[in-house]
Amino acid sequence: MATTMKIDFVSDVSCPWCVIGLDALEQALARLGDQIVADLHFHPFELNPGMPPEGQDITEHIVEKYGATPEQSAANREAIRARGAELGFTFSMDKRGRIYNTFDAHRLLHWAELEGRQYVLKRALFRAYFTDGKDPSAHPVLVALAREVGLNPERAAAILASDEFAADVRARERFYLDQGIHSVPAIIINEKFLLQGGQPVDVFEQALRQIAAQG
User: Fold this and answer.
1) Across 198-202, average pLDDT
2) 167: pLDDT confidence band, cut at 50, 70 and 90?
3) What is the average pLDDT across 69-81?
4) Per-domain residue ranges of the chain
5) C-alpha 90: how far from chain center
């Protein structure tokens, strides 16, 4: 008999390790076949809540925030690209030179959850930013992605032009911060077990098996 697992995936649209973590988690679930039924929900986390509208050069940002040298930053970007390739995801590093504010993207994801289209929008946002090099803070980009995944583009534009769902997103962000989540991805299973980071598929598979065995 299949075990149903509620999976709360706390992440940011501009977090490459969140893409890696999601892909690895899904591949681990695929290995388990019909043993586990995943009830997956995405929750907002902003790595850079104070990021201005125009964004910032990625290398400059990494140096300022983490103290990394340009060489260290380049090595990390290559490691991310390689991990993505192993999992079947394309990180187009030559197209992604800036990092942007993601709050409006999270507002749209909140709405998409209510419409039953959150997963496909999350995937579209990851692809738009990391593969296609698009600006996930730009409203035309967000509206186009909403249309692409079957959401009403006029409704998406109206949400983005207002502050609708802003309080909901901030409340959910605050909830996870208060729970001690300060880095992402943070993957919470059945509101009890915490898995963190872009772990290898084998690690996720082993963890899921252990959790399922505990009933």
Assistant:
1) 97
2) very high
3) 90
4) 3-213
5) 15
* Residue 106: Cβ within 10 Å count: 27
pTM: 0.95
pLDDT 10s digits, 127-161:
999 999 999 999 999 999 999 999 999 999 999 99
pLDDT at 138: 97
Judging by DSSP bridges, how do beta strands 36-44 and 56-57 pair with one another? Answer: unpaired
Task: Give residue 215's pLDDT.
Answer: 67
Sheet strands side by side (includes 186-189): 36-44, 3-11, 186-189, 193-196
Q: What's domain 3-213's architecture?
A: 3-Layer(aba) Sandwich (3.40)
**Amino acid letter, residue 80:** I
- How many beta carbons lie within 10 A of that of residue 162, not counting itself? 10
